[in-house]
Amino acid sequence: MPLTAPRLWAVVLAACAGQFLVVLDVSVVNVALPSMRDTLALSETGLQWVVNAYTLTFSGLMLLGGRAADLFGRKKVFLAGLALFTAASLAGGLAQEPWHLLAARGIQGMGAAILAPATLTLLTTSVPEGPARTKAIATWSAVGAGGGAAGGLVGGVLTDALSWRWVLLINVPIGALVVAAAAVWLTESREETVRRLDVPGALLVTLGLGAVAYGIVRTDSAGWAAPSALGPLVAGLVLLVLFVLAEARSPEPLVPLRLLRNRAVSAANVAIFINGLAMFAMWYFLSLYTQNVLGYTPLQAGFALVPHSLTIVLGSKVAPLLMARAGERYLAVAGAAMAGLGYLWQGTMDAQGGYVTTILGPGVVMALGAGLAATPLATIATATEDPGEAGLLSGLFGTGRTMGGALGLAVLSTVAAARTDARHDAASLAAGYGMAFRVGAVLLGACTLFMLAALPRTLKRAPVVPGRDPAPAPELP
């Protein structure tokens, strides 16, 4: 029986609120990083791990979170993830030592990994396939993109007006409110065919990704051939190989390898991974550039990125209209190509950059491209004829995006540091950040070519029983 319009809106609002919070916390700390460094005496590597402790646990455990939603119930898992996320936000806001903050950020990532797949699964299992689901996913994508983009403004306002602690503490009242509302609004659903969780697989993929990211970060100070960098890199790759072998032998794997033989699923997830390698670092480097090179305050840096936020939301919201005309494949290709051009433009930044030509212009092009690519990729990656795979596909999509972001930040930060060569004057920092954007442009160019070749021209839709019309979906604006 299709959901009524009020109940459908309750699902969409809850899913979007949860998605906004978990994506906001990927970027909200960026503007606050200089203040965190001064208060807690964090090193440059420590600053990266304020971000990566969250994103790596987030990405590594998201597959487990998606499967847990199918097994234990989407509402129950949504509430549990949001409660853990909120409690960890409180602990992080009260941190007194660097390890307190890093541990809290890691636990936040665990909560986000439980919560995030449930948000998309709530939509794909509650909203009937067709225009209504496309609009719901577009809204979810726009809110998620807006959360990442709004992080700079929210972080700047809170850091300037109160302190960096409030970029984490602000989650506590919002999270409590959403938990209370979701407990009343949402109805429970689960997939009866899922019987167990693949905990060993989740541990292998999380530890593997963490080791690879740590090894990449260590190359900044130790070099690629040093045992302290090469050891974690090799160990991480071995763990990831063990993960694939474990999945092939598991009776109920975290990632059934048969899914990767589905062209739409595998190609869309590879594309979102490559996009994540470049896209996520945009907010990190722009926040550092505006403050460390142009001398903006945290509040000014936040306001400087407001047009980026609005543009990425606009791109996500107009994507369904363009998908109906051009198709998912070509819109994703066009969006990634546009973002790549913006990255090339941004890569020309220097120490005397003006706001319009150095931040606003390239930022709008990058953000619009990112917004246009997000919705079609999410639609392709989660299209399935089996409702039992909804949570898994949502988790796989989120893992690819966030994993790409975490590793991309580690790689591009190393690229920037190598170009800067330990110099901290404005010109050297600008040169390092510009090099990171130019490498990001190369990644997006490669992603554009890959999507053009690999994404399917049409999607396999759920079959319609002959003689039976599909139930109409409640209308979404």
From TrEMBL:
GO CC annotation: plasma membrane
One term of GO molecular function: transmembrane transporter activity
UniProt keywords, alphabetically: Antibiotic resistance, Cell membrane, Membrane, Transmembrane, Transmembrane helix, Transport
Pfam family, one: MFS_1
Protein topology in the membrane: Multi-pass membrane protein
Residue stretches in coiled coil: none
SUPFAM superfamilies named in the record: MFS general substrate transporter (SSF103473)
Annotated protein name in UniProt: MFS transporter
